[in-house]
Design brief:
This protein is of the alpha/beta class and 152 residues long. It has a single domain, classed as Glutaredoxin (3-Layer(aba) Sandwich), CATH 3.40.30. It is built from four helices and eight strands. It has an eight-stranded mixed β-sheet with strand order 3-2-1-4-6-5-7-8. The protein is globular, with a radius of gyration of 15 Å. The mean pLDDT is 96. The protein binds zinc ion. The site of zinc ion has 8 residues, from loops.
């Protein structure tokens, strides 16, 4: 799965790999693997970055997720952010089932960026149990980002 996922105020929307039905993985059960509501196929772990579309879904994710959340602050005009995108996606795939990866467009969500005191991008934040655990910034390969997230 290489494309981005979306989320709402209740959970992450995960398309069933077998039938394509959109299943909502609620934040409180984000570490579990459920079954497709339509065809009952077992759903995979969340292995792609989640594109944040609203401040409400962002708040629900970081406060409700039972897994650590790694946030990528980026913007479309930022060259290093473009270079970082495939690394972030790779890290999300490598950490499937152990952490959730979310992307915040700082042009669209300046309030979220301000809340995290983001200065330069790309910037990253690690949130555990609703609390900010670590922050870093600048381009980094997937392996280095994961090592940072696991120490945080
Ligand atoms: Zn299905």
């Amino acid at each position: 799965m290489s494309s981005h996922l979306t989320a709402d105020e209740r959970g992450i929307i995960l398309p069933c790999p077998a039938c394509g039905t959109a299943n909502r993985i609620v934040y409180a059960k984000i570490a579990q693997q459920g079954r497709c509501g339509s065809c009952k196929t077992g759903l995979p772990h969340i292995s792609a970055p989640v594109e944040i579309e609203s401040p409400a879904s962002f708040s629900a994710l970081v406060s409700g997720s039972t897994l650590p959340v790694v946030i990528d602050f980026w913007a479309p005009w930022c060259g290093p952010c473009q270079m970082m995108a495939p690394e972030f996606a790779k890290a999300a795939a490598m950490a499937a089932g152990t952490a959730v990866f979310a992307k915040v467009n700082t042009d669209e969500h300046q309030d979220i960026a301000r809340q995290f005191r983001v200065q330069g991008i790309p910037a990253f934040a690690l949130v555990k149990s609703g609390r900010l655990a670590a922050q870093t910034s600048g381009f980094q390969p997937a392996e280095r980002l994961l090592a940072w997230a696991r120490q945080g």
